[in-house]
Amino acid sequence: xxxxxKAHNLIFMPFQPIKSRPTADEVSRQIExxxxxxxxxxxxxxxxxxxxxxxLDVSRPVLREALKGLEGRGLIESRHGGGNYVAPIEGTLFxxxxxxxxxxxxxxxxxxxxxRREVEATAAAMAAARATESDRTILxxxxxxxxxxxxxxxxxxxxxxxxEFHQAIGEASHNIxxxxxxxxxxxxxxxxxxxxRSRLYGHSGSRDELLAQHRGLLSAIVAGQSDVARQAARxxxxxxxxxxxxxxxxxxxxxxxxxxxxxxxxxxxxxxxxRKKDNATDxxxxxxx
Length: 289
Hints:
single chain; mainly alpha; Arc Repressor Mutant, subunit A; disordered N terminus
């Protein structure tokens, strides 16, 4: 079991002492590289100032200058009383107005999956060829957590791990552009811009199939089988496309049949014979005098 102190060290391990002249530019360059290479993720918390300065082997004034510059460029953000965090820069690849437009376009949703099918196939093939032992360990641990969530029927957790798994495959490609383009795509997926993941993970049959597909994808990458990984990624997205289409068509049929039922009941009510009320005066006798 990992002790708290060891976990703490693992979190901050990426930061290395500045070997050259310790300037703010050198500090900034190291943090920029960690963000660019996908080592630091949006939302990751940087170590405290004292700890980070010690790990980088620079003075705190130099570190403050570097952090101020990174914040000014939108790469990190300072939270009052909460330290410094990597900024959510992946969302900046798609401007807000564009997201609003594509969210309302059915064609954009289909195009999104088509794009993912081809790009993720390439990323999986590259990951199979380039993944290091550390990359494979990350993927295996994410999949293990996914299996646990699957066993507990925690579909929200399982869906979140799905995104994390695919993001880790992108990172294992060791292609900087691939990493950040895929992060932007997964941000849209996590935000439910194109479709709700509950439409997939809300059905036990789909959840079983998706888990099996992720297992196959992991096996191909770990085995270094680029062609197999490419085909597995394509088949996975093709399944997602088919499942979402089937779900949408089933929803449309359910809506139409509900409308038919309402109209049927309206017609039935309109043609039902109206029961005549008894005339209150019929059969009355003259009052006795």
